[in-house]
Specification:
alpha/beta; 433 residues; two-stranded antiparallel ribbon
Length: 433
């Protein structure tokens, strides 16, 4: 063969190879957050519904602004909240079932970790028409960490929507990557944001509303999912009144403010705020127990079925004196504790985004998502499985107890729903009132 002909053949081969590679790496074929690994447990795969997604902006009027007091007292402000809502949807053949999410790495006002915009792809269709074929869907409200964003757990929010839930994730103002501000705002507003969003979802779900949610969701059948500070707030919503010690700490950090007092276990109004519409709560690595956020009386106030998820080496929320202590102290709740042995704090979020691997990006951006001893995609699949079982059992009355009522370890064989050898490294505890 002549050299020019060989070169032409080689060039054609490289072009075909490049085309094949690019096709394999296209969003439709690439592995995205929430996709299934070969060893995913039984309930992890997506459900039968197409998934739509929309962004909604709300305003919670006349809220206490503890970050900008005047004469030593909090002022009032209209508190903006941005929501991302996933829901069962009709996906037409000519509308892509992919969505581009816009996110940032970094921290607001931190020169060492400047904001770095990036995008990532999800398996949902922006502004798709809702699918009412499943009737009125249960509601799931999701609350991120500090800092975080409403897009931190898209692997789970998309997955639940595909199984017949309306899932609403909150951008907690002053607690996101884009607007990170003083910690007292997070201490005060997490549970208040959750309850406000629940009420707004109930209002917009009324058949007389002009919202796309009209007639689509049942706010009387709600689950809360919270990660880290999101777990802190979610547990407070369902009965874990804060301790007098936290109220004292809050006052010290805000110049004496008592704004948090109505959310403490000793408050005369706290018990009246508990909402019977919430049927279940999932708390990933909830923060605060080892810092004195709750005492025995506060934890005893939880009566809502609870799934706690933690890493046995959690160095942010703590384990023995942190999440496991919450499990031990919630004596009036039907509760589970799923433990990732040797995991630290990052047992809830999406895997590290590709943007965190780029040259020049500080390692902390990758480590904000990564677990040192676990594969993040595997954690995602395991979470999809257990959250599906837990909320399905309590919101849809599904016969999923066998997936949760497990031996503490898999020493006697793989757990129900897991492939052989694939439940190693996990522990499950269960206690009833």
């Amino acid at each position: 063969m002549k050299i020019p002909a060989l070169r032409c053949l080689l060039t054609l081969f490289l072009l075909l190879g490049t085309t094949t590679f690019l096709k394999a790496q296209s969003p439709g074929d690439a592995f995205l957050a929430g996709d299934m690994l070969p060893n995913a447990p039984e309930l992890a795969p997506r459900g039968a519904y197409g998934v739509g997604v929309r962004t909604l902006k709300l305003v919670h009027p006349a809220q206490l602004d503890v970050l900008h007091p005047k004469d030593g007292k909090p002022t009032l402000y209209d508190r903006p909240l941005t929501l991302e809502i996933w829901y069962p949807a009709h996906i037409s053949a000519n509308k892509p079932a992919l969505v581009t999410y816009e996110e940032v790495l970094g921290r607001f006002n931190d020169p060492k970790r400047p904001l770095i915009p990036f995008t990532f792809t999800g398996r949902a269709s922006r502004d798709a028409d809702p699918d009412p074929s499943g009737g009125v869907y249960p509601l799931v409200i999701v609350s991120h960490g500090y800092p975080g964003s409403r897009l931190l757990l898209t692997y789970l929010t998309e997955n639940l929507a595909s199984k017949g839930y309306v899932v609403v994730a909150i951008d907690h103002t002053e607690s996101t990557y884009r607007d990170l501000a003083g910690f007292p705002s997070t201490l005060l507003n997490r549970s208040l944001d959750d309850l406000f969003v629940l009420n707004e979802m109930a209002r917009m779900s009324q058949k007389t509303s002009n919202s796309f949610l009209a007639g689509l969701l049942d706010a009387n059948n709600t689950a809360l999912i919270g990660y880290s500070m999101g777990g802190y707030g979610a547990l407070n919503v369902v009965g874990a009144g804060y301790s007098p010690g936290l109220l004292k700490l809050f006052g010290q950090t805000t110049g004496g403010s008592t704004a948090l007092e109505p959310r403490t276990i000793a408050s005369s109004t706290y018990k009246a705020s508990l909402d019977s519409r919430i049927k279940a709560v999932v708390a990933f690595a909830p923060w605060g127990m080892d810092k004195g956020v709750w005492d025995a009386a506060g934890l005893a106030g939880i009566t809502t079925p609870t799934l706690l998820v933690a890493g046995s080496k959690d160095d942010v929320s703590g384990y023995d004196k942190g999440v496991k202590a919450i499990y031990d102290g919630a004596i009036n709740a039907d509760r589970y504790l799923l433990t990732y042995v040797n995991a630290r704090h990052n047992v809830a979020p999406n895997p590290p985004p590709a943007a965190s691997l780029k040259p020049g990006v500080v390692p902390e951006e990758y480590m904000h998502f990564a677990e040192p001893a676990w594969n993040e995609e595997r954690i995602n699949n395991i979470n999809q499985h257990f959250v599906t079982a837990f909320v399905g059992m309590h919101l849809k009355k599904m016969d999923y107890a066998k997936y949760l009522n497990l031996p503490e370890t898999d020493a006697a064989g793989p757990w129900t729903g897991f492939k052989p050898r694939m439940s190693v490294g996990l522990e499950m505890r269960h206690a009833k009132p």
